[in-house]
């Protein structure tokens, strides 16, 4: 089964691969991608035949994060509509981070914003040696609110502050050093390395893995109210004058007014 924006493949061993399939848009998220991933993950969570989940992407880049055309449209929506939209994205990250099955992310090219959020929610992250990452929201007058809890969990508060505030691009060496990714592999080797990890995971008790994942999530600080506030925050920021100027500057290929 598949949708146009997310392809789904399942092997007889119980390995499911979800492939982001908007290569012409650098696999940026819009409402269709978010809804397709959410539906797929909900089904996976309740299917005992599924043992491992791989998340990958077609094309040159893993994901550019939020589709800016979609974000530009959301600027003109009501505050409540923006909150509901942000809550949908928040629920996707929460579902992925708490999935009962082991998750592996395979990264090529660029992973920006929400794309890095996906990586922070996965158990194992493997990246090609030329991959690069960025939390670019601040450059557009936006904030990476919905992904923040998972990024902090993955790389710690200090590293998150540094990368969120500078909005600078960083490479696989820094990503591995701070714990965002686990392995760096040569170009073209992602599938081979993923297969090796799947082979290891399939030798482990599926119920044991589910219990381990559930327990690790439970013993972490988990504040649902903070997640809701994150969604409300990004909704507020999206419709702000600064965000509208940042998005306009991006599409008009000019510097934002606050740039010196």
In short:
The chain is of the alpha/beta class and 260 residues long. It has helices spanning 31-45, 68-74, 79-97, 114-121, 148-155, 157-166, 172-177, 190-202, 206-218, 224-238, 241-251; strands at 6-10, 15-20, 52-57, 103-107, 110-112, 124-128, 132-134, 170-171, 183-185. The protein is 48% helix and 15% strand.
Features:
260 residues, alpha/beta, 2-enoyl-CoA Hydratase, Chain A, domain 1, 3-stranded mixed sheet
Describe this structure in words.
The protein has 260 residues and is α/β, with parallel strands linked by helices. It has a single domain, classed as Alpha-Beta Complex (2-enoyl-CoA Hydratase, Chain A, domain 1), CATH 3.90.226. Helices cover 48% and strands 15% of the residues. A 6-stranded mixed sheet has the order 1-2-3-4-6-9, with helices on both faces. Strands 5-7-8 form a 3-stranded mixed sheet. α1 links the parallel β2 and β3. The longest helix is centred in the middle third of the chain and has 19 residues. The protein is globular. The N and C termini lie far apart (50 Å). The mean pLDDT is 90.
List strands and helices in order, with pairings.
Blueprint: E1 6-10, E2 15-20, H1 31-45, E3 52-57, H2 68-74, H3 79-97, E4 103-107, E5 110-112, H4 114-121, E6 124-128, E7 132-134, H5 148-155, H6 157-166, E8 170-171, H7 172-177, E9 183-185, H8 190-202, H9 206-218, H10 224-238, H11 241-251
Parallel strand pairs: 2-3, 3-4, 4-6, 5-7, 6-9
Antiparallel strand pairs: 1-2, 7-8
Helix pairs in contact: 1-3, 3-4, 3-10, 4-5, 5-6
Number of strands: 9
Total domain count? 1
Uncertain runs: none
Strand % is: 5-15%
* Topology as a string of helices (H) and strands (E): EEHEHHEEHEEHHEHEHHHH
Cα radius of gyration in angstroms: 18 Å
* SSE-based structural type: alpha/beta
Q: Which fold name corresponds to the CATH topology?
A: 2-enoyl-CoA Hydratase, Chain A, domain 1
Q: Note the gap between the termini.
A: 50 Å
Tell me, what is the CATH class? Alpha Beta
